[in-house]
Design goal:
By secondary structure, the protein is mainly alpha-helical. It is built from 7 helices and no strands.
C-alpha cells in the first residue's frame, strides 16, 4: 500500500496537482482519495483505472509493475515511460516530440 501511495503522490506532484484537486477531478470526497494517497486503503480495480486516467498514467505504472527484459517487455516499458513523460509537457514540447516521433517512424518505414 505504501508504494502505491508514494506513486500516487509522486505522479500528482509531477502534474502539479494537490490531493484535493485529484479528488475533485475524480468526483471523490477529499478524504476518500486521501486514504489512497497516504496508504490507509487501496482502490479497487475500477477506481485505480479512474485514478490512472486523472493522473495521465497507467494502472501498471501506479502499481509498479515491472516488465521483463525481453524486447517486447522493454518496448512496453518504454511506451509507458514516454506516455508519462509526455503528460508533463506543454503544447510546444508535445509538438516537437510528435515531429521527432514522426521522423523516426518515416525513417523506419523507408528502411533508412
Amino acid at each position: 500500500m505504501v508504494q502505491l501511495a508514494s506513486r500516487l503522490k509522486a505522479r500528482a506532484r509531477a502534474l502539479g496537482l494537490s490531493d484535493s484537486e485529484v479528488a475533485r477531478r475524480l468526483g471523490f470526497d477529499p478524504q476518500r482519495y486521501s486514504n489512497y494517497a497516504v496508504g490507509r486503503s487501496e482502490p479497487d480495480l475500477g477506481t485505480l483505472i479512474r485514478i490512472a486516467k486523472v493522473l495521465e498514467t497507467t494502472p501498471d505504472a501506479l502499481l509498479g509493475v515491472a516488465y521483463s527484459e525481453d524486447g517486447a517487455g522493454e518496448a512496453a516499458r518504454l511506451r509507458v515511460q514516454l506516455r508519462e513523460t509526455a503528460a508533463g509537457l506543454g503544447e510546444s514540447e508535445l509538438r516537437v516530440l510528435n515531429l521527432v516521433a514522426d521522423a523516426l517512424a518515416r525513417e523506419r518505414a523507408t528502411g533508412g
